[in-house]
Amino acid sequence: MENIHVRLPDGQTVEVRRGTRIDEIGSGHRADGDIIAAKVDGRPVDLNRPVEQDCFLEWISIAKSFPRHPGDYRSDYRRWVLLRF
Fold this sequence. Notes:
The chain is of the alpha+beta class and 85 residues long. The protein has a single domain, classed as Beta-grasp domain (Ubiquitin-like (UB roll)), CATH 3.10.20. The chain is built from three helices and five strands; from the N terminus they run ββαβββαα. The protein has a five-stranded mixed β-sheet. The longest helix has 12 residues. The N and C termini lie far apart (38 Å).
């Protein structure tokens, strides 16, 4: 199989086999917080999608989706609702 290049948000480029799932790429290159999805060239995708061509990969985490501010209990509630369902 052919290898492709995936550029990560920190500027690092990793070489992986075509068809590698995003969660496999993420296992060694995690962002802060729990990763719930990713963006491939700006388009949101789930973690089990295979990467078929060179791309820019960004992580979508609960921490980024629902930032927590001290004393902001709404963030805790949103996080609980998201994880509950």
